[in-house]
């Protein structure tokens, strides 16, 4: 059963096409993230799903019910879609409890137990129920906005970059609370974001959007390990795209040979190698070809990403190392490749 089915959706504003034949599904109980750069059409897609605008072409169905397309347009209030914007957009003159029940039928608005259930669901103490929005932190406000969106038990929840205004620590904490709440409610949700870490850590599936199209939709591990193209590879993490010559199933690069995940004919190829596949080893003078200079070290605490230049070719590569030790800037090191590479050259 699918919570959302989008087929061939197009949308233009004047002469500017924003969505160009979008196809996407969200399974029941699944959190799907639409990942893409600013201006790629993510928020426009959410607005079409919510009913705030109509597509020029295509159909959108919630469950088995078509809400737009084939001559049908269901108004937003009848779609049973919850919406959490970038800023929580809580009503400043209402307290937390009043904000949460705002979208419920009047007959249900005095159900205090429902407010308590939702506060617990999003990880907030019930004692905040009578606080004003300005008395809450940014993360707490977003959790209240989530509780409000979940209150009517929507068919689908739409999350429009809801963590972008939070600082790093609060963003991580709030993400975890939101995922826990969605799992507990068995809710189906569509998150749009430009943050690759957010998409990778939260979503069951990631849909990569570029230039108004979905170019790949798959589990996070599949998108990271088998990206559809080099641009997709870079959108979900650091990537080395190297020129290579393929011979006998091996891609021969400036930093050594590596097996290909998808075998192809011999000849020139462009391959993808993740930084964790580039191993830094002490230079022993036996291989001039793979010597590299350490240009920069990006320290992240749990690991470091090292920028290097291959001396023989001036090719720049990234390597990821774990732990607290890093090579010295300007040092000469040797490089090796591990694992398998992805190939993006078109087969003849």
UniProtKB/TrEMBL annotation:
Provide the Gene Ontology terms for cellular component. ATP-binding cassette (ABC) transporter complex
Q: Organism's domain of life?
A: Bacteria
Keywords of this protein's UniProt record, alphabetized?
ATP-binding, Cell inner membrane, Cell membrane, Ion transport, Iron, Iron transport, Membrane, Nucleotide-binding, Translocase, Transport
* Residue stretches making up the ABC transporter domain: 4-236
State a single Gene Ontology molecular function: ATP hydrolysis activity
Check the record and name the Pfam families matching this protein.
ABC_tran (PF00005), TOBE_2 (PF08402)
Question: Which chain regions cross the lipid bilayer?
Answer: none
Coiled coil spans: none
Instruction: Kindly give the InterPro entries that the UniProt entry links to this protein.
Output: AAA+_ATPase (IPR003593), ABC_SmlMolc_Importer (IPR050093), ABC_transporter-like_ATP-bd (IPR003439), ABC_transporter-like_CS (IPR017871), ABC_transpr_FbpC (IPR015853), Mo/tungstate-bd_C_term_dom (IPR008995), P-loop_NTPase (IPR027417), Transp-assoc_OB_typ2 (IPR013611)
Question: What EC number(s) is this enzyme filed under?
Answer: 7.6.2.9
Q: Under what name is this protein listed? A: ABC-type quaternary amine transporter
């Amino acid at each position: 059963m699918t919570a959302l089915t989008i087929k061939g959706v197009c949308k233009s504003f004047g002469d500017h096409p924003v969505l160009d034949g979008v196809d996407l599904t969200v399974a029941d109980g699944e959190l799907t993230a639409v990942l893409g750069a600013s201006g790629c059409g993510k928020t426009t897609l959410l607005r079409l799903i919510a009913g705030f605008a109509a597509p020029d072409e295509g159909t959108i169905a919630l469950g088995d019910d078509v809400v737009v397309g084939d001559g049908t347009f269901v108004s937003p209030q009848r779609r049973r879609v919850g919406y959490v914007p970038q800023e929580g957009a809580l009503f400043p003159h209402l307290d937390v409890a009043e904000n949460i029940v705002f979208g419920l039928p009047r007959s249900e608005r005095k159900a205090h137990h429902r407010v308590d259930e939702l506060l617990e669901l999003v990880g907030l103490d019930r004692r905040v129920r009578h606080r004003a929005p300005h008395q809450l932190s940014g993360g707490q406000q977003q959790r209240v906005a989530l509780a409000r969106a979940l209150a009517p038990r929507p068919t689908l929840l739409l999350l429009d970059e809801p963590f972008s205004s939070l600082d790093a620590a609060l963003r991580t904490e709030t993400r975890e609370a939101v995922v826990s709440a969605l799992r507990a409610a068995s809710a189906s949700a569509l998150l749009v974001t430009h943050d690759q870490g957010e998409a990778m850590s939260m979503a069951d599936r990631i849909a990569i959007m570029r230039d108004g199209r979905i170019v790949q939709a798959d589990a996070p591990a599949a998108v990271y390990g088998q990206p559809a193209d080099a641009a997709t590879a870079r959108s979900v993490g650091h990537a080395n795209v190297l020129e290579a010559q393929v011979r006998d199933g091996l891609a021969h690069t400036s930093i050594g040979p590596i097996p290909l995940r998808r075998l192809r004919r011999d000849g020139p190829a462009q391959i993808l190698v993740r930084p964790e596949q580039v191993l830094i080893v002490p230079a022993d003078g036996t291989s001039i070809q793979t010597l590299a200079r350490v240009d920069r070290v990006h320290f992240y605490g749990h690991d470091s990403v090292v920028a290097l230049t291959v001396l023989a070719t001036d090719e720049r590569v990234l390597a990821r190392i774990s732990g607290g030790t890093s090579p010295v800037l300007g040092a000469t090191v040797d490089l090796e490749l591990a694992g398998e590479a992805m190939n993006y050259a078109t087969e003849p």
